[in-house]
Amino acid sequence: MGTMDITEIMKIIPHRYPMLLVDRVLEIEEKRIVCIKNVTANEPFFQGHFPERPVMPGVLIVEAMAQCGAILVLRGIPDRAEKLFLFGGVDKARFRRPVVPGDQLRMEIEILAQRSNSVKIRGVATVDGEVVAEADMLSVMAPRQ
Fold this sequence. Notes:
Blueprint: H1 6-12, E1 24-28, E2 32-38, H2 58-74, E3 83-95, E4 104-114, E5 118-127, E6 130-143
């Protein structure tokens, strides 16, 4: 079990501001990872979602979980700088309560199935121990051009 800070994360996945949605890796094993995203009032999406009641968009919570999965899978691929993970599908997505500024999103991801060019993962996001979102995601590896 290891941890990673933001500079180590940025060496593995290509995402950058404003789309980098993982701040730290708390735990990492062969088929499981736990990451956090500190949700602040400074997030660019809060300007329009919603000005009077800021709520993190559900699609961005799913994206954050997918990025955790990409860290888990890409860290073991030697030529990862030449690869990109793209969404192949999202199933069983459920949103239990809003995520707002000040929340710390804790995302637990596990690999359900893995092939040479695709991976199916299950993600559960919590805030203060309460489930806020969950989804099964399929990602397909493509060459980065």
